Amino acid sequence: MMKKQKEVYTHVRMLTREIRKSLDKHTILYTTLVELSKTLNLQNCAVWMPNENRSLMNLTHGLSPGSAVEYHRSLPIDDPDVLEITKNKGVRILRQDSVLAAASSGGPGEPCIVAAIRMPLLCASDFKGGTPELVDTRYAILVLVIPSANDDWSDNEMEIVEVVADQVAVALSHATVLEESQLMREKLEARNGLLQQAKENAVKASQARNSFQKVMNNGMRRPMHSILGLLSILQDENTSSNQKIIIDTMVRTSTVLSNLINDAMDIPDKDEGRFPVEMMPFQLHSLIREASCLVKCLCVYKGFGFSTDVPNSLPNLVMGDEKRTFQVILHMVGHLLNISSGKGSVVFKVILESGTEGGNDKLQGARKHSVFDEYATIKFEIEVSRGGSQTDSSISTSHFGGKRYNSKELKEGMSFSMCKKLVQMMQGNVWMPSNTDGHAQRMTLILRFLKQSSFRKHMFELVNPLDQAISSSTFKGLQVLLADDDDVNRMVTKKLLEKLGCQVIAVSSGFQCLSAMGHSTTSIQVVILDLHMPEMDGFEVTTRVRKFHSRSWPLIIALSSTSEEQVWDRCLQVGINGLIRKPVLLQGMAEELQRVLQRAGEGL
Looking at residue 127, what is its pLDDT? Predict the structure, then answer.
């Protein structure tokens, strides 16, 4: 008895040692089959594994080349023998008519004894907290085909099979966990690689954006700010009415271009690509007059005639986004002229719509207000008429510039898309009616503006001092220190201040600004500095100035081209008294100087 047990332990240790030599599942199974076959003198040895959805048991490993070649390679999971084996421990002897036995032994042939035992299969997800969870365990089946001459199996052989099955289950579970861990490690490395690539792409995109903004700022925005500053000086000169219209139109057009540059530079910073809409009082008559002047110039350049149709009943002082409205009108005109060629005429119509007319249903959000008398619904129509003959009245098409356009292509143009997006942000609508005669192309814009009422009258009067002349004696003798790193902008801003009567010392850096304050023989009353100077920006300059001077003197006014709201909060924190958004115009400079001085308690 002791000798038999010793032989059993020897065989088990040998088999266990062979099984644990590898961490590959297939090697473990094949080694198990070979060693068990040698030790127990088996006719065949096979392993059946469940598929992923646990609907079938598949024959995956076998020693006999004839195993299941012409018989079953798969058995349903609910096969009676499969169910009996997987639900019970220990070795089970299969019946002679068992499908599992026949498939494992290679089909009908010599009589033999077939034994089977289950082997639990665990995976990494079954180990939570270091120990297997209570999960629905999957089982593989180890099948041993015993020749009929060896049908006198003893308990020792049964014990060997049970112990080996347990060892194989442990080894398979270990190999599965390591395999899944390796797979997870590879997935993690791949994901880390993707994250690293995304990081590199983000850095490159940020560098490209910074490079683009630098080029746009130095090559377009700064020169445009200088042009607007010089034009604002011309606006204050004594000019004829025609000259004034031309200058005002140049200012308006330059402002539109400046806004477009700012939008192009700030798009990545804006949420969902939306642009800010500023609701401010403005003069509608002035906007229409300046827009007509510019449209006429464009039409003359393109070889088109031009006429206007504007009623005298239009309200003048309204509330809305003046800059965006002017920008949309220019987009409309530019879009129609770009798709047109040859001779023709452009008609610019402005119509005051009543609150109950049918055309008003085109306006998005137009009926949110019940009192129509407070609002003016304005329709702008721009029509390009040209000669031609109708060739096919059933198709709405136009021929411009040698190319055939249909209505859908026209509406998908970049300019029209830009118009529509801007108008939708102003709660309006713009569309291009389909024409059936082939002789005209028209775009229609509808916007609603808040009209001036009696209790809002003072608001318009305060923010529309455009027609008031600025006296050079208002700020006469005011000592101003100007710091700006851009030579042209610094020169223009200095001209604006001198136009107002200020005595200006101009420097080009933050260090020079601090040095000028320390060596100045006169008392500097106001410091005007750019917030975005290199080496030492305006915030740092202000912080150093406030260390040695009071918070209210000298007065500090910042210049900034950004539209971020948090800039003013930071200005207040460091002790800046005022902020002027670039471009710096004469009127804006005068208003901010006056506001800051009044708040500081200085009489003018």
Answer: 55
Q: Which residue has the higher pLDDT, 406 or 6?
A: 6
Q: What pLDDT is attached to residue 200?
A: 92
Same domain, 160 and 285: no
Q: Beta partners for 384?
A: 346, 441
| Residue 252 located in a structural domain | no
Judged on CB neighbours under 10 Å (0-12, 13-18, 19+), 241 is exposed
Q: What is the pLDDT of residue 39?
A: 77
Same domain, 419 and 520: no
Residue 123 lies inside a defined structural domain of this protein = yes
Instruction: Give the closest residue to 5 by CA, choosing from 167, 164, 155, 162.
Output: 155
**Other Cβ atoms closer than 10 A to 60:** 15
Buried b (16+ CB within 10 A) or exposed e, 298-332: ebeebebebeeeeeeeebebbbbbbbbbbbbbbbb
Domain count along the chain: 3
User: Whole-prediction pTM value?
Assistant: 0.52
Beta bridge partners, 345, equal 305, 385
Q: The domain containing residue 519 runs over which residues?
A: 479-599
Do 160 and 90 have their domain in common? yes
Is residue 147, in this structure, part of any structural domain at all?
A: yes
pLDDT digit string (tens) for 584-598?
888 888 989 988 888
